Amino acid sequence: MTVWTEDRIKRLRSLWREGRTAESISRDLGAGISRSAVLGKVRRLGLSALRPEPAAGENRPRPAASERTRPPAGARSEVRHASTVSPTVGRRTVLTVRRRECRWPLGDPLKPSFSLCGCPVSRGAFCSDHAAIAYRGAPQTFEQLARLAGV
DNA sequence: CCCTGATTCGC
DNA sequence: GCGAATCAGG
């Protein structure tokens, strides 16, 4: 059964234009149309770029997130620097590392024991610990530069 | 964990 | 073309 009838496509366009979420639209359309189906169709129709971007100060047609329970906004988010950057063995190899896993290399690339960190990615390609090493800013002083160069 | 849209890729 | 699975970000 062809799901995307003209009528449903029309309604999809309309609902999407109103800023409804994909899940909401899928429920609206019913007929076994899933959230993914909506997203896929939206993409194929080229609607992705047409999302109304609420200008600053506008009413945003986005009632979605408000229905959920909001976490108590009291807690401080303290970055714990940890001490435990495993110096030797990672949990992944170049063949097994997955998408959101830290790619920090550990060990000698020429040895079979060579591995990748594999911890959950925090920033870019690395976990928080390794990102702190990888994404340091450019050296601000000559001393920093010299240290970086190992001189 | 929850959510969101975005993307991939076998069908 | 379709959409489940997955990705990426909040």
Automatic annotation (TrEMBL):
Protein name, per record: GcrA cell cycle regulator
Composition skew (Basic and acidic residues), residue ranges: 59-70
Region (Disordered): 49-90
Family matches, as Pfam families: GcrA
Superkingdom in the source lineage: Bacteria
